[in-house]
Design goal:
Distance between the termini: 46 Å
CATH superfamily of the largest domain: PurM-like, N-terminal domain
Number of helices: 10
Largest sheet: 6 strands, mixed
Strand order of the largest sheet: 6-8-5-9-7-10
CATH topology of the largest domain: 60s Ribosomal Protein L30, Chain: A
Oligomer: single chain
Helix content: 25-40%
Shape: globular
Bound molecules: magnesium ion
């Protein structure tokens, strides 16, 4: 190729030039070394005595395909991780990103990926402080590790009590029709919940309510879910019209909703709902409450009325 033609694939660009390019694409989302790209580690300040730490990938063929623009791939990558920080009531801080890509990947694809990542990072106050680039033939994926500072209180999956009310944000189901890459992680909402009285447990919905719900049900209790109260996304009905499955199946089992599910003391539920409406436009719905598990049953979740016979609450199983 003539020397004047800029390299168009990773293979012709080479690693050194790639790192320089990434630095340029990230712009102010990446601080100067040693706090950002340029040394063996990123050296960052943190005053929290506890640090939240999470990692999630996007893999081509699994979390995205070639129809999804690179900017949305990048946003999905960062926002998946932001949703985990939100679920624990934290404030996101620093990200490192491990990219694995084939040599024929177009540099233009990566430029759009990193620029969108930078825009999203700045929107949520995240600094992208480094990472790694590895060649792998026939594989494209990126793993992002994100840190966060806990809020006033750490929201965890354990701690729900008898009588607690269950709330969920947003609307559920049909994420594959587009929301899986375009959702808004509930970072501000999670931080507020961490400073609000009566919140006992929280989780973000990544594998579907039908599966994730069981993670916050304590031994001996069961979550009674009011089926007709569940907030149904318009996409859940569209998905149902397309494939003929009941829409409630999509609501429970599609996954990648990235909404928050949390348990609140019954005595605080009304005040929380009122406070929420003053602060957020994000929908908030009471979907059920915690009861004693019936003797002789091992059901952590029961639906009222019961689910139709052709629907099972199983969520998304990764290795099946
Ligand atoms: Mg999670």
């Amino acid at each position: 190729m003539p020397a004047s033609t800029p390299p168009t694939t990773l293979g012709t660009l080479g690693e050194t030039a790639l790192v320089e390019a990434i630095r340029r694409w990230l712009g102010p989302a990446n601080p100067p070394a040693p706090a950002g790209i340029g040394d063996d580690c990123a050296a960052v300040d943190h005053r929290a005595s506890r640090l939240l730490l999470t990692v999630d990938p996007v893999i081509r063929g699994r979390h995205f395909d070639d129809a999804l623009p690179p900017g949305l791939v990048a946003e999905k990558l960062l926002k998946r991780n932001l949703s985990d920080i939100a679920a624990m009531g934290g404030r996101p801080l620093h990200a490192v990103i491990a990219l694995t890509a084939p040599p024929e990947l177009e540099v233009a694809w990566l430029a759009r990926f990193y620029r969108a990542l930078a825009r999203c990072a700045r929107r949520y106050g995240v600094l992208v402080v480094g990472g790694d680039c590895t060649r792998a033939d026939g594989f494209l994926g990126a793993y992002l590790t994100l840190t966060g500072a806990p809020g006033k209180k750490l929201l965890t999956r354990t701690g729900a009590r008898l009588g607690d009310v269950l709330f969920v944000t947003g609307r559920l189901g049909g994420s594959l029709l587009g929301r899986h890459a375009r959702f808004a992680p509930r970072v501000a909402e999670g931080a507020w919940l961490a400073s609000t009285k009566g919140v006992h447990a929280a989780i973000d919905l990544s594998d579907g309510l039908g599966k994730d719900l069981a993670s916050i049900v304590p031994d001996g209790l069961c979550a009674r879910i009011h089926l007709r109260a569940l907030p149904v996304a318009a996409d859940a009905r569209r998905a149902a019209a397309k494939d003929g499955r009941p829409y409630i199946d999509h609501v429970l089992n599609d996954g990648e909703d990235f909404e928050l599910l949390f348990a609140v003391a019954r005595t605080h539920a009304d005040a929380l709902e009122q406070g929420w409406k003053l602060r957020f436009r994000t929908p908030l719905t009471r979907i059920g409450n915690f009861e004693k598990r019936l003797q002789g049953t091992n059901e952590a979740v029961c639906f009222d009325p019961p689910l139709p016979a052709d629907v099972h609450a199983r969520g998304y199983e990764h290795f099946r």
